[in-house]
Amino acid sequence: MVSGIVQGVGFRPFIYTTALQNHLTGWVRNTSSGVEIEVNGEPQYIQSFLNSIKQNPPPLARIDSLNTTPCKPNLYIGFEILESHSEEGKFLPVSPDISICPDCQRELFDPSNRRFRYPFINCTNCGPRFTIIKDIPYDRPKTTMAEFALCEACKSEYDDPLDRRFHAQPVACQVCGPTIWLESEGKLVENGEKALQETRNWIRTGKIIAVKGLGGYHLACDATNTLAVSELRKRKKRSDKPFALMAFDIQSIEKHCFVSEEERDLLLSRQRPIVILEKRPDSLISPAVTPFQNTFGFMIAYTPLHCLLLEPEEGYPDVLVMTSGNLSEEPIAYADQDARQKLSSIADGFLLHNRKIHMRVDDSVLRIFRNKPYFLRRSRSYAPDIIELPGVKNPPSVLATGAELKNSFCLTRQNSAFVSHFIGDLENLETLQSYEEAIVFYEQLFRIKPDLLVADLHPDYLATQYARQCSSVHQLPFISVQHHHAHMAACLAENGWTGEEPVIGLCFDGSGLGSDGAIWGGEVLTGDYHKFKRPYQLKYVPLPGGDLVVRKPARMALAHLWQAGIEWEPGIPSVDYICSQERNAIKAQLEHNLNAPLTSSMGRLFDAASSLLGIRHEVNYEGQAAIELEAIADPNETGHYELQVIDNIIDPTPLWYSLLKDWFRGVSTPILSARFHNSIAYTTEKVCLSLRDKSGYNTVALCGGVWQNLFLLERTVNRLELNKFTVLIHRKLPTNDASISLGQAMIAIHTSEQ
Ligand code: ZN
Ligand code: ZN
Ligand code: FE
Known about the structure:
By secondary structure, the chain is α/β, with parallel strands linked by helices. The protein is built from 23 helices and 32 strands.
């Protein structure tokens, strides 16, 4: 019995050929919990067979366990692959989707191949998986390919154990498989290859096309055409948030960006995610793609359809915008009718196909930090990979419902945590619906019935309300967990930390409800999976106007100045930006404590700095002010300012004084931005050192959305490592709120033990 990722990865053909090589008879079959094999033969051959399984499994397989039991010799004539066998209640990991492999890509452009230019070419080593599977075991009838009957030629490849498409469930060809067509205003324009050529013509002339892909729709246009890109921004109602780009190959990307070896490997990996890269100054890509930033988010064509769409040709753009097909804030469209309706106001045409998408997933987004991948969004081709829960014995099954923004949920079964793909911001009905559907799907796919529900402490989060509702419908216990405790636990769990010794958690993010009712976000915690203390926090500042401040960093800057006792003098960019009428209103809110909840948010501190330096006073997407502040920071500047640490309060007052003094002296904003970042890293180091002196804790976990700032992360990790701290950062999940659900699950499991 073999378990792990052993289905949809060419495992049975591999077993078949390996058995033949070793003169063994018997059979192999998929079950709901793995792959079952019976072999008869000479002991030394059986041993060598087992060794091959352990040492040279197929490239996409991951073996978690291999159990053997002796059996009576049976008289088999040869070696056979049997029908799959499903068992009640058993489960099996499901492979994520895999980008087109080199063999298929070669065949796609080979005129002598029978799948020449066929947009759905795939094989045992590549193609859709998670987005088309409806249930396990992973067999064609349980995927959205069930409705396409195999033609003779495909059937013989599918049945031939020596063929590279043996039991490749989505296998198809021009004769029997899905097809593409181009539509405009509800009318068919062209079919098949002509549809593709017409789409390319439309893109060449600056039109916007909705392209149905693997996990949802993209909106595509020529990335070098500023008119087209700006038009897309206008129609999508998205003013500044970066658009993702797609290129045919790595050479095209290198024309526009600096690409390190690690970035190159990640772009070309079988996940082919979006990788954030530094722009080349001579790039011809429209600046409207990523306004106010020095980076582009690039991916390489990852399905055969993308390869055909991006195929290089004289006069055709080498880079396309490929942004998710949705209206601002809504989840990516994936169902055809829904997409037609929602995207008709944005797209001039629709490049469609008739292979259904069962589960929507967005593209994953990563950066390289210290030569290794660092997630900003974990979705396509990574979900639903398992994260092992360290050191827990016979835990209950848990549903952790996650946070409000950048939501993911997490379901656990024994030591396996299934952290969902990126769901999005649970602020509208659309996203809530896709969230609920995804939970039901994961529960069914992985055969999980939660014994326990866990949610954020914030009662108004839709995810919290969902958990409460489930708990009362199914009569299940419910636990709520403080947001930053969950952040810390998530970072510990994915680093395999078993929980013997408490750690220091640097939980820096935008906001999360604190145990005292204030809005936390600049917290230094200590603790473990059971409990936490809060030895240091950023000083509370009022948020004049509550949520409004998140959109208007200039208000945050005024609040920080007021708190620090600094006059709102003309000449300070934030003061100049806000008209006197609004300033008076803010002053009244601050002085009379009207609609001015308290926050210790580190994210808001970065917002304030961004506005004070005149970089960003009002944001169009979450985190924009901090992102632009990071973008201009001078990497060679080493200076820093002081923050005051008294008792357990970190007070930025002296920082604001120094920053403004130097600003008025004419020190440049890149230098000031760098010093601001350095000041946070320096203060963090100081606080950790003093905590270690008092407590002896030597492990520091960095968690929360603020650590998406690599300028800050690099400097903080450097300082902590120089002081011989063990530093834990996120590597398997994003450091933002998408990791919260894993932490909630881990805390719930530990709390329920007691
Ligand atoms: Zn392939
Ligand atoms: Zn066929
Ligand atoms: Fe958070």
